[in-house]
Amino acid sequence: MRGLYYAHSGIRYLVIAFGLFALLYAVLGLVRRRPYDRSMKALAAAFAGTTHLQILVGLALLLSGRFGPSMGMHFVLMVFAAAAAQIPSSVMRRRPPEERSYGPHVVLTLLALALIAFGIVVLGRSPLGMSDL
Predict the structure, then answer these.
(1) Which string of DSSP letters, residue by residue, matches 65-80?
(2) Which one, out of 12, 72, 84, 90, has a CA that is 20 to 30 A from the CA of 46?
(3) Kindly report the CA angle at 84 between 130 and 41, in degrees rounded to 5?
(4) Residues 6+ apart with CB under 8 A from 72
C-alpha cells in the first residue's frame, strides 16, 4: 500500500508538468496565431492521460482503505479536473482541422490545474510538495 501512495504522490508531478507544458504551448499558439498542430494534440493527450492514471491510482488507494476526512472532496475535485483535461481533446477531435483552436485548451487546462491545486490543498498539502500547509 505504501508503494501505491508513493506512486500516487509521484505521478502528481507528471500531471502538473504535462499540464503546464500544455498550457504554455496553447497560450503561445493562441498569442502567435499559429495553426493548430499535432504537438498540441500530443500534450493535451499526455495531460489527460496522466490525470486519468492518477484517478485510477487514487481509486486503488481509496479501495485499500487509505482515506481521511477530506478525501471525498479531494476525489471529487480530481474527477472534475480529469474531465476538464479531457474535454479540449475530445472537442478538437470532432472539429474539422480548419476550425481547431488553442482557446479551449487554455481555458480548460487552466481550470484543470486550478482544480488539481485546490484538491491537493484540501488535503492540507502543497501542490508542489515543497512543504505541508
Answers:
(1) T---TTHHHHHHHHHH
(2) 72
(3) 95
(4) none
Cα 79 to Cα 10, 42, 133, distances in angstroms: 18, 21, 23
- Digit-coded pLDDT (tens) for 13-63: 999 999 999 999 999 999 999 999 999 999 999 999 999 999 999 999 888
The cell numbers describing 32, all together, are: 502567435
Q: What's the half-sphere exposure (Cβ side, CA atoms, 13 Å) at 78?
A: 26
Cell, residue 81: 479536473
87-129 pLDDT tens trace: 999 999 999 999 999 999 999 999 999 999 999 999 888 877 6
Which grid cell sits at 123? 488535503
| Prediction pTM value | 0.91
Burial of 50 (0-12, 13-18, 19+ CB in 10 A): buried
